[in-house]
């Protein structure tokens, strides 16, 4: 099932649902109170994997999300250690432990948007080829 294309991959309504779920995950990271950050991190990790499963399901999307999460977390740690900005009560090398989950779900969301834009362009080219052949 990892290599299969998702059946709603090119529909803009699916892309907008993906964006809404990403906004919900981001909002949950700021507004939901948990007893400790481990519970919050595990919940956000499960939601992020769920986002990937619902809207992407590709091995490339999973790999892209993991790479973006790792690189963006590393850059964030560097920026925080240099004093560019800071987190109140960091718990994971200068940052909050849930930050990689947000970057992962953001990478999946941007991949979904990019795929829909690329597919839309391909569909427009295909429609243009059909018109040329009909004339």
Automatic annotation (TrEMBL):
Which named protein is this? INSIG2
Tell me which InterPro entries the record gives: INSIG_fam
Tell me which GO cellular component terms the UniProt record holds.
Answer: SREBP-SCAP-Insig complex
Q: Name one GO biological process term.
A: SREBP signaling pathway
Cite the entry's keywords alphabetically.
Answer: Cholesterol metabolism, Endoplasmic reticulum, Lipid metabolism, Membrane, Steroid metabolism, Sterol metabolism, Transmembrane, Transmembrane helix
Places the protein is found: Endoplasmic reticulum membrane
Top-rank taxon of the source lineage equals Eukaryota
Question: According to its record, how does it sit in the membrane?
Answer: Multi-pass membrane protein
**Where does the chain cross the membrane?**
38-55, 62-85, 97-118
Protein family per UniProt: Belongs to the INSIG family.
Principal subcellular localization: endoplasmic reticulum
